[in-house]
Amino acid sequence: MRLLLLNGPNLNLLGQRETSIYGNQDFDSFFKELTSKFPSVQLDYFQSNIEGEIINKLQEVGFSYEGIILNAGAYTHTSVAIGDCIKAITTPVIEVHISNTFSRETFRHQSYISPNAKGVIIGFGLESYVLGIQSFL
User: Fold this and answer.
1) Which of 30, 75, 81, 134 is deepest in the core (most CB within 10 A)?
2) In whole angstroms, how large is the CA radius of gyration of the chain?
3) Domains and CATH numbers, the chain
4) For residue range 24-77, what is the model confidence (pLDDT) as tens digits?
């Protein structure tokens, strides 16, 4: 099984930014833990702060991978284009969020990803990604 973990803007700062919300662990070290925890799954990782690069990656893998675990960051709440892209591809997408977006600012309650996602996992910290992987197994 081949899965892509795809992170959007500012998630490259995990472990440094707003640690009270996002925790102290950087994503690179967490990704190493994931690959050890799920040795039978081929996990690939991509992060971009640029909306078009996220769309390009979704289109690149969206017809050949078994699943995509997407944390689109703030683009979740603003990007009709990413939502449309998820609708256009055949690979199922699980939307994940580290924090509980519903306990934060009102604008974070809207998602353009959710209507086209296979499922949504919100608020379990980095464990949200583990749950996303498990949903495909």
Assistant:
1) 75
2) 14
3) 2-136 (3.40.50.9100)
4) 889 999 999 999 999 999 999 999 999 999 999 999 999 999 999 999 999 998
70 token code pair:
């997407």
As beta bridge partners, residue 42 has: 2
DSSP structural state of residue 72: -
Query: Does 84 count as an annotated binding residue?
Result: yes
Encode pLDDT of 110-137 as tens digits: 899 999 999 999 999 999 999 999 999 9
54 three-class SS? helix
Confirm whether 109 is a catalytic residue.
no
Q: Give CA–CA dist 34/53, Å, rounded.
A: 24
Query: Annotated binding residue at 2?
Result: no
